[in-house]
Each structure stands twice: as structure tokens, then as C-alpha cells.
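Q: Here's a chain of 540 amino acids. Please give me its 3D structure as C-alpha cells.
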Amino acid sequence: MTLSLLQTKFTLLQGDGNDKLSVLPASTTGSLSSIITTSVASSEPDRGDHRDGGVGGGGDDDDNNIVATTAGGKGTGGVGGDGHGPPVGHGGEIKQEKWWETTLQISIPFFIAGVGTIGAGVILGRVEHWKVFHHVTELFILVPALLGLKGNLDMCLASRLSTQANLGNMVSTREIIHMIVGNIALVQVQATVAAFIVSLFAVGVGAAINGRFLFDHAMLLTASSMFTATTSCFVLDFVLVAVILMTNKLKLNPDNLATPLAASIGDVVSLSLLSFIASLLFEHIETHLWITFVIVAGYFILLPFWVFLVYRNKYTRSVLKSGWVPVLSALFISGLGGLVLDTAVGVFNGFVVFQPIINGIGGNLVSVQASKISTMLHQSSIIGIIPPHTKIFEPPWKALFKGVPYAKTARILILMSIPGQVLFIFVADYIHMSESTIGAPFVLSYLLVSLIQVMLLLYIAHIIIHAMWKWKIDPDNSAIPYLTAFGDLFGSSLLALAFLFLRGIGHPYGENVDEIGSTITTTMSFNPVDVDLSKNFGIY
């Protein structure tokens, strides 16, 4: 009886399908539609891919439709969908996007961010020969974790603000300023604490591997890590805010634009800052070690101020308490990727050039998918309830190719990665080697491992985000750190396997076959103390 009454009220409000549900209060719109969806879905059998009409299905298209949150009727279009239903969720319209609109909006920042990944690889390929990187080898462990941390924090900020924009909450100037201040302060809190922790991780692992602990190196790593994380995040957050406000004003989807820019543009900035501050501190470490103490102490003195701003802000107060587990867990996962980089840099020539590219592109693509899925869930359901158009565990082909509403975006991202990867590795190779040196074996091996990485990340994203939603954890705050960290680990590991395979078939990158044995011997016996650091020494 109650269900029938709710459906009758909802039908009267919906009218002919063209009326706006936004006339309802924000909470009423989302809750009523979710109650109807959940009630009907629980009383009907599973219909597979839900494209036959009825509850949560319907629509005149396939998985391009965002499944309706109404009982029956046409599918409700969502972010990236082609449905024709009414807007739902907090009074904000679910934007209708054709596949070419999604592709165009994603491709522009994707290729711009690709330039950032190329730049990061080229920079890392240059600075690996600097004195500080030879003496303080723990910096190689720090690089993936620090870049991952920066990406995690910035992409979470972009995802949170993109969701608010898609829900129609970024209207009042006062509220927009309130959101921006709270989120930037939150990122500073997380960057300060997490950068300190990741430096301890690098120091500990380095001491275990090298069999010695040097206090001055530990202070250099800590100061460099905290300076790089906080400064790059502070600058890039303002860029992201500007991008989100601009896209919102132009009626574009910030989910497509903000997260890719957050993922990779900062890599160049972060690597440059890390290399600069680490080299500067190393040059004066014997006479001015006290500078590292001042840097570390200064950030801890500022920490209570940032915490105060976050705690007073209604948009970020809850994240201050609950947002630490994913960030710190992601640091550990990215740290494992750092161990792979630290090992591979001494074995494979040119590895550091392509590692930021494969990791950056994987992080870019999965962050777009994560942000869009999160926005769709916010618009079509209430937290704790999985919409009937999908499940936590779907077969990979349904999650990635055809069967769920998000599969369309996944297909676009997978296809976009192929020409993107080819273009980026050719450009990076030409810049690094001053000529084009890669052939078919390298291209095919690299493409294979990059596709495996991207598909793994997209499928894991589907599982993690829906599981978090079911457990009442906001994926905007928690999903992206895990996904980008796995991207770093998978990317570094799979790339190392590709380089190992290429060496095994006699086509190593940047090496002559006759030099392989001597290269390995030189690498295994390398001792930084015996090197004349006045020369631009390289392992190869």
C-alpha cells in the first residue's frame, strides 16, 4: 500500500517526463526515488543487464543509459548517459552526454596531461644522474609515493568539487568560497601528515636495504618530501578550482576535465620541486643541516591552523576524521611501486623515462571513471543502497565493455589509451635519446602491459566504488587513492616485466646486446662513494 502511494505521488510529480523533479526539496528527491527503486528492485527478479524496461532498466538504448531511479519508464540519463528521464538528486540535473561529447571532453585534458607525464619522465631521466640521487638513493623510493600522494589528494579534491558541481550545489558565491577554503585546507593537512609518513617509509626501507642509517639523509628526505607535497598541492589546487568553476559555468562536465589535469600536470611540478629542494639541501647539508629542521618544524607549526579551518567547515569536517585510511594505505601501496622503481633504475636503461608515463596515464583514466561512477551514484541513489542497474561484482566484460551504464566510458577510456600511449612513448623516446630508437617489439610489449594495467584498474574501480557505496563510504574521498596507488604498483611492475621480456628476446631498450652483461655487473657492484661526483656520471 505504501509503495503504491509513493509511486502514485511520484508519477503525479513526474508528469509526462518533461517536468522537473527539482521542485521537490533536495532530500525528498533523492530519498523518494531511491526508496521506490529499492522497494521494487527487491521484489522483482534480477533481469541481467536491465535493458528490458521495468524498474531501473528500460531506456531506448543499451548501457549508454544511466538507469532510472524511478519505477518503470525510460532510463534516466546520467553523467555520460543518453537517457531522457528527469533530473534527480539534490535538485541537480543529470547531464545528458553523447559518446562523442564524453570523448571530446576527456581527450583534451588527457593529451594535455600526457604532456605532463612525458615531462615527468624526461625530468626523472635527467635528475637520476644528479649527485643527490646517487648519494641519497632513497629518493627513488620516495618519487612514486610522493607523486601518488599529490595525485591522490588533488584528484580527491577535484572529485569532491566535481560532484558538488554536478549536484547543482555550486551556485552561491559564499558557499563556493566555503567549499574551496575547506578543501584546500584539508589537502594541506593531509599533505603535511602523509608526506612526513612517506618520508619515514623511504628512510626505513632505505636503511633496511643499504644496511645503514644516516640522520642527515633522513632529515633531507623528510624536509624535501614535506616541501614538495604541500607546495605542489597548494599551487595546483587553485588551478583545479579554476578549471572546475570554468567548466561548471560553461555547462561542461568537470568529471571529464578536472581529474585528468589533477593526475599528471602536477607530476612535472612535483618532480621539479623535489629535485630542486633535495639538491639544494644536499649541497649545504654538512654546514646548514639546521635548515631541514626549520622546514619540518614550520610545517608542523602551520598544521593546527589548517586543522582549525577544516574542522570549522561543514564540507570537510567529516573527511578530517574518515579520510586517512585510504590515503595512508595508498602510500604503502605506492611505496611498493617505489621499491620496483629503485630496483629497476639500476638494471634497465630508460626505465625512468617511461615509468611516469604508464603510471600517469593509468591514473588519469581510472580517475575519470572513478569520478564519473561516484557522481552517478550520488545522483541516482542514496549512500548505502546499490542501484538495481548494477552489482558490486560484475563480470569483467560487462563492467568494461557492455552491460552496465559505466561500460560506455570504460570503452572510451580503453580505446583512448592506445593512440595516447603510442604517441607519448615515441615523443618521450625522441626527447630522451635525441632520435627515435624504439621498434615494433618495444611498442607491442609496452601497449600490451599498458592495456592490462588500464583494464585491471577500471575493473577494480567498479568493485571498489560500489563496495564503498554499499558500506556507506563516500567514494569521492576514498576510492581514488587506492586506484592510483594500484596504478603505480601495476604500472611499474608490468613495465619491468616488459623490459625484462625485451631483454630476453634480444631487443633491450637503449642497450646493445653485448653490453647487457657488463651493465648488470656494473650495476650490482655500483658504490656511490667511489664515484667522482664532479662528473655527470651515469650507470650506462
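Q: Can you summarize the key feature?
A: The CA atoms of residues 366 and 458 lie 6 Å apart.
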